[in-house]
Amino acid sequence: MNHNRRQFLQDVSNGMLIAGLGTGLAGDLGISTAFAEQGDTSLTFGDLHPLVGLMQETPVDKLQATLVSKLQRGETDLTRLIAAAALANAETFGGQDYVGFHTEMALIPALQMSNELPSERKALPILKVLYRNTERIQNGGFAGTKRLKQVRPLEIPTGAEEGELLLEASRAGDIEKAERIFATSANRSLEDAFNALLWAIQDNANVHRFAIAHRAWSLIDVVGTEHAHTILRQCVRFCAHQESGVQKYFSKRNLPTDPMRPLITKLLDQYHLLDHPTGTREADDAWLEETSRFIYEHNNADSMDAVAAALAEGIAPESIGQAISLAANQLVLRQDRLNQDSWRVHGATPGVHASDANNAWRNMIRHTNHRNVVVGLMVSAYNTGGSQCFSDYEALPHAEHVEQLQAKDAQSLLGSAEEAIRSNDQTRAAAAVAVYGDQGHNVRPVFDLMLRYAISEDGRLHAEKYYRTVVEEFATTSPTFRWRQLIGLARVSASAYGYDVDDNRGHRAPGYDEACQLLKLST
Description:
By secondary structure, this protein is mostly helical. 64% of the residues lie in helices and 0% in strands. The two termini are 40 Å apart.
């Protein structure tokens, strides 16, 4: 964790906050001395404020031209555009709109994708996601909506566990109380706030909880620590807002609560996981393969138990996360119904969701305390398990599709993969990328190909996140297995090509063609 994060708001009084950090963050936390008298509880964003307003108020058909003009005149840059969009999104939606929070989760991946592109194309993925952001604000009935207001910290008893208090407020669906508790944590330190937040994030196996927290944490480096509270608090609101739906879901199944909740407590006690530090023993390939297979072949509870046992045995968290990642990847590779045109594997599907969820936890536990490392891995395993029916199907690539490929040189295989993507041929795309990897060709051209289609296609709001998930998991997976991640990305890219968010055929991502035209790029 960066030094400035550890020291953020550490042991400072309200007066020091206002003097040292300015009125923006102090006002967000509701501690300005003028708060009671001024009556205006709106948030302020310092020198980003005009750009935030532009993202919220500009008609979407004028947005990209306006932003490109600003970029060309040197009035802003891509990082500032992402920062302003993140703040506009957080203030408008507050983590309570499906398209809104999916768009927030795509901002950092879009910026990361930009860094993989040549200079003339760097703006393309960012303009695409900013279009989605403003389009939702303008055309989704949110123009003028600002869910985030200033919030007053809540006095917390000495010695109380803020994460536990936040969890209780979240389970009660009390957004205001949860926000006030979280503001108290943020007033103390950003590290405390994030660790408290994860108590609520870990309370239900919903991939969106995990991804929004992961991406919000990453956005702090873009928006600056003065806006950290604004970015993180939408995660608090998401959890409390979703609780009524969680309760209804399990009530319909005659369950008193989410069964994962008591299971976490049971396994923590059974394996004494909070009584000793996590282990450092790196797992070998045989263990990774065996554990990943167990997870995708077994139910949620058994998968969580397996991870708890591995933690108790001293297996390093990085190795456990890698095994869960490989299990999630198998869900992508084994999902069947290939002969039904309506069956898509991109977007909200078990494999993509599980892959993004585990990637989120692998990243977050590198910045959290011991409890959240342990529980985060357990929850990730619970999320990935439960799709054991997929184990009945053979993982891609299938031998017959590999045999149908005539050429083995790199260029021909890349051409076959692209042709398969554009014809929605998932099996051929997977086979071409698998053979390319078996031949030992350079990996970068495959990523470049997949990046092109992650930018041009919508992917049911998942294209950016899943592309970056694969990039990161490839880099942190054993060489024996890492190519499976790219095979999965090839399949998902072929599934997504030409489909809009509602899976209607014949569409590119909204805003993509216009962005290409403005940047004078071929589509």
